[in-house]
Amino acid sequence: MNIGETAARAGLPPKTIRYYEEIGLVKPMRDNNGYRAFREADLHKLTFLARARALGFTIDGCRALLALYEDDARASADVKTIANKHLEEIEKKIVDLKSMHATLTHLVKECAGDHRPDCPILNGLSSVAEPVDTAKSEP
């Protein structure tokens, strides 16, 4: 398969596939004319990488998962360890996003949104104030 067909089937832009080749995640064969020739195995790796990246795994995480995917003697515990670590990172991001949401919600509610120049949103962004504690307002 050429890069265009492979890209369409894997759901990745050709530029991403070239990048993955550059950093050694995939190693397509080359035709006599020098063009990339992707095999089914390459397509499976690229699909794997697309799905892992869609779940937010870093390139290093993808590299580790791909190595385990290709290792028939792997222990599923190793895969689970990587996935659990990533899940913990996602959960921390969720906490951070909820805090950001609460702070911004508070600032938006405080702003009159009228013709006056006074704006609690701008004041809040420029101050070194403590984040809003939303735990008190939740049931």
Automatic annotation (TrEMBL):
The biological process GO terms on file are: positive regulation of DNA-templated transcription
Boundaries of every HTH merR-type domain copy: 1-68
Q: Name one GO cellular component term.
A: cytoplasm
Q: Which CDD domains match?
A: HTH_CueR (cd01108)
Q: Which InterPro entries match?
A: CueR, DNA-bd_dom_put_sf, MerR-type_HTH_dom, MerR_fam, Tscrpt_reg_MerR_DNA-bd
Q: Which UniProt keywords apply?
A: Cytoplasm, DNA-binding, Transcription, Transcription regulation
Question: Where would you find the membrane-spanning parts of this chain?
Answer: none
Q: Where in the cell is it found?
A: Cytoplasm
Q: What is this protein called?
A: HTH-type transcriptional regulator HmrR
Organism of origin is Actibacterium lipolyticum
